[in-house]
Amino acid sequence: MASFPSFPWRRSRREQPEQPERSPRRITPRLLLIIAAALLVLIAGAAAVLWTQPVLKVGAVEITGTRHVPVEQVREVSGVTEGQNLVRVNESAAATEVARLDWVESVTVSRSLPSTVRIEVTEHTPVLFTREGDQALLIDAHGQAFAYGDPPEGTVEATGEGITGEAADPEMVRTLVEAVNAIDPGVRAQVASVSVPNQWEIEFRLADGRTVYWGSLEDYRDKALAMRTVLTREGQRWDVSNPRLVTVR
Q1: What is the pTM of this model?
Q2: Residues 72, 78: Cα–Cα separation, whole Å
Q3: How far apart are CA 177 and CA 217, in angstroms?
Q4: Fewer CB atoms inside 10 Å of the end CB: C or N, the chain?
Q5: Which keywords does this chain's UniProt record carry (predicted)?
Q6: Which residues, other chains included, contact 146 with Cβ-Cβ below 8 Å and sequence gap of 6+?
Q7: Are 109 and 167 within one domain?
Q8: Residue of 200, 180, 199, 198 lying closest to 190 (CA atoms)
Q9: How many domains does the chain have?
Q10: In the prediction, which pLDDT does 165 show?
């Protein structure tokens, strides 16, 4: 009888008993709390270091938007200096101090990593000025008086009780500013002053001596267009109180 060599007995993979699948380890609420607490400790520690140690320093103070306010004055009143801790720069306090400057209408202070503080200034736009003794009081595009100083080129002098006296109406002043802004830039450059004895008898005087009577500020846009038209014609005194029927006075 033939004999066969014996081999070690092996079981195929298919014949091996299946192992039960291990379910993934679940993250328990307790573990989540531990992780969250650890993160909070790390964040608090990092914040404490940044607050107490000058890890991030102010390397530059960038100031934009100034034409009449000296840059150094803005830098000084802001209280922001190069080398101080960037994290401890008080943006609100710096903006409040800069906003106190006469010419500043609004200001934004911001920090930019790694080392820059930006101060963005918006200045008042002067449109009119009035005389108070030997001083000129500047009035901006919103009809607000904001500073004493030399009137910039293109600013129109306003005279008369209607704008300088106790009877001056703030709403009328705002409308007058809008009316001046509605005048064609080429014409406005010729205007020397506007007389406002009251709100019904407004008259513009040009540098060459000509005058244009507006009367009230009603329909001021139409009157501004009529003013541009009549100044191309011969005549010294024009009346555009009715912009559809202009006359020589």
Answers
A1: 0.74
A2: 10
A3: 10
A4: N
A5: Cell cycle, Cell division, Cell membrane, Membrane, Transmembrane, Transmembrane helix
A6: 102, 103, 105, 124, 126, 138, 139, 140
A7: no
A8: 180
A9: 2
A10: 72
157/216 same-domain check: yes
The residue among 101, 123, 145 that closes a domain is 123
Residue at 133: amino acid letter:
G
Please identify every stretch of the chain with a pLDDT value under 70, giving residue numbers as ranges: 1-27, 30-55, 167
Residue 32 tokens, joined: 């989540």
Where residue 210 sits, what CATH number does that domain have?
A: 3.40.50.10960
Quick check: is 50 in a domain?
no
* Other C-beta atoms lying within 10 Å of the C-beta of residue 137: 17
DSSP states along 194-220: EE-SSTT-EEEEETTS-EEEEESSTTH
- Can you tell me which residue has the tokens 């009780």? 161
- Single-letter residue type at 240: V
Which class for 7: exposed (0-12), middle (13-18), buried (19 or more C-beta within 10 A)? Answer: exposed
Tell me the C-alpha distance between 157 and 131, whole Å.
Answer: 8
Domain check: are 77 and 93 in the same one?
A: yes
151: tokens are 């009137």
Q: What CATH number is associated with residue 96? A: 3.10.20.310
For residue 88, the 8-state DSSP code is G
Nearest C-alpha neighbor of 220 from the set 178, 190, 172, 187? 178
Which residue, of 98, 123, 148, is where some domain finishes? Answer: 123
